[in-house]
Write a structure and sequence with these properties.
single chain, Immunoglobulin-like, 4-stranded antiparallel β-sheet, alpha+beta, 470 residues, 2 domains, 5-stranded antiparallel β-sheet, binds iron/sulfur cluster, elongated
């Protein structure tokens, strides 16, 4: 009898909650969660969504606060313009972010997924709420799904999917505003789609993808598609704090029978924790890849515990060691090592960000040219110089030859002007008296001044023939 029960409890290892034996998807109808954690999550999600929808409208120095224009490879983050030339900063930021996520996951499990990931926030706090509003709770949804196509089913499904499409369209517009800026998006609306066909098609594509994700894919994104979800097994250890069932206290589970001497555990096997789970799993089987730490099962179980007069927290945030040994969380060598590397990376990133120059200069000798013989027995080399103005100001740039002895002659205008957030390319000669040339290749040092202030010292080479001294 006991062994049959164990086999029964181990069966979860052989199947997925949302796939039947033939491989067909089983639709999950999670019961509407309620409880304090769900309320906190709802408020937090409204805050996140509020920030996300308002974000594109916020401007700093008349520029978007956040713009990630991957098409033109131009990024504005908190009012600072970043260009492809800032790749080192971007790589550092990405490394720091990935390490932060790893460290956070090692310590606190998958809280990000359940509380802050846009996929869960939109799914649970927007699309799912609309679904509950129109189709009712889990049982009513199931009934409606199985019912024939009556007028009620048609209007409910029609309204739900219509609203899903509208929400997806709003989200797609917001995402597009982060890419091309809100001003460009307004232009698209004012001028009409015909004049901005490419952007309009991108908008429809985004909308369709979002609709498909929230109307059909749903929990499959967290279970199969998201790489972060797939990495959980590598990051969690026995000290990681995750949503966990206290099996020490809960087992043996079973219905409450009055005066039953056999019954010892607190779990009454009501399965409410399973019914509210958006990924359809049973948290009593232990930490599973499908668990997004949404905490819905904590609320559900706490409600049961209150009803049966037992302490709350049979399902709670806890580590495996915390449950088995009653051990509180402590930093282990792995966590300390991650924290040290994270602090180091973040410090390097901050240093690179603070010392980043407003103007990026690239100096190259014009390819394919050695030197030119000029009048007055002078030798010249031709150079190309490129300026990237990363600010929102106009910049006037001047070049000064430091070494070797010689002069700079601009090919076109003597005045170099770089428009805000633009790139300017100019060519110039370095002229030297032939008599001064002692080597085939001489180091060249040029100082770059912007609005009268030294911003960079560039180095290159000057090539020339060697004239024998008479
Ligand atoms: S097991 Fe609990 S925390 Fe994990 S996804 Fe299901 S309801 Fe959310
Ligand atoms: S909600 Fe609590 S009592 Fe009910 S089955 Fe889940 S763990 Fe057991």
């Amino acid at each position: 009898m006991e062994s049959a029960k164990i086999i029964d409890q181990q069966q979860f290892r052989d199947k997925l909650a949302n796939v039947d034996r033939s491989g067909k998807r089983l639709w999950i109808f999670p019961k509407k969660p309620k409880g304090p954690l769900y309320n906190y999550r709802t408020w937090f999600s409204w805050l996140l969504m509020g920030l996300m929808f308002v974000g594109p409208w916020i401007k700093f120095h008349d520029k978007p606060l956040l713009m990630l224009n991957v098409l033109d490879r131009k990024f504005i983050i908190f009012g600072m313009v970043f260009w492809p030339q800032d790749l080192n900063l971007f790589a550092l930021l990405m490394l720091t972010f990935v390490l932060f996520i790893i460290l956070f996951t090692v310590v606190f499990g998958r809280v990000w997924c359940g509380w802050a990931c846009p996929q869960t926030v939109f799914m649970e706090m927007l699309f799912r709420k609309v679904e509950y509003l129109i189709e009712g709770d889990a049982n009513q949804q199931k009934k409606l799904q199985e019912a024939d196509w009556t007028f009620e089913k048609i209007w409910k499904k029609g309204l739900k999917h219509g609203l899903f499409w509208v929400l997806s369209f709003i989200i797609a517009n917001t995402f597009l505003a982060y890419i091309i800026s809100i001003d460009e998006l307004k232009l698209l609306v004012e001028d009409g789609p015909a004049r901005h066909l490419g952007k309009f098609m991108a908008l429809i594509l985004f909308t369709t993808v979002f609709y498909f994700v929230f109307a059909r894919l749903r929990e499959l994104v967290c279970i199969f598609i998201c790489p972060y979800g797939r990495l959980q097994g590598l990051m969690l250890d026995k000290n990681s704090i995750v949503v966990a069932y206290d099996f020490v206290r809960g087992e043996p589970r079973g219905r409450m029978v009055k005066d039953d001497p056999e019954k010892k555990g607190d779990c009454v096997d009501c399965k409410l924790c399973v019914q509210v789970c958006p990924t359809g799993i049973d948290i009593r089987n232990g930490t599973q890849l499908e668990c997004v730490n949404c905490t819905a099962c904590i609320d559900a179980c706490d409600e049961v515990m209150v009803k049966i007069n037992k302490p709350k927290g049979l399902v709670r945030f806890a580590s495996l060691n915390g449950i088995t040994r009653g051990k509180k969380f402590s930093f282990n060598p792995r966590n300390i090592a991650y924290s040290a590397v994270l602090t180091l990376l973040f410090s390097v990133f901050l240093f690179a960000l603070i010392t980043r120059s407003d103007i990026e200069t690239t100096l190259l000798r014009t390819p394919g040219m050695l030197y030119q013989k000029q009048e007055n027995n002078q030798i010249s080399n031709l150079y190309n110089i490129e300026f990237v103005n990363k600010t929102f100001k106009d910049l006037d740039v001047k070049l000064k030859l430091i070494e070797p002895k010689g002069t700079i002659k601009m090919v076109e205008n003597d005045q170099i002007h770089v428009d805000p957030e633009s790139v300017a390319k100019v060519s110039f000669f370095v002229l030297r008296d032939a008599a001064d040339i002692q080597k085939v290749s001489t180091p060249v040092k040029i100082e770059v001044y912007s609005n009268g202030e030294l911003i960079e010292t560039m180095k290159s080479k000057f090539n020339g023939p060697i004239f024998k001294k008479q």
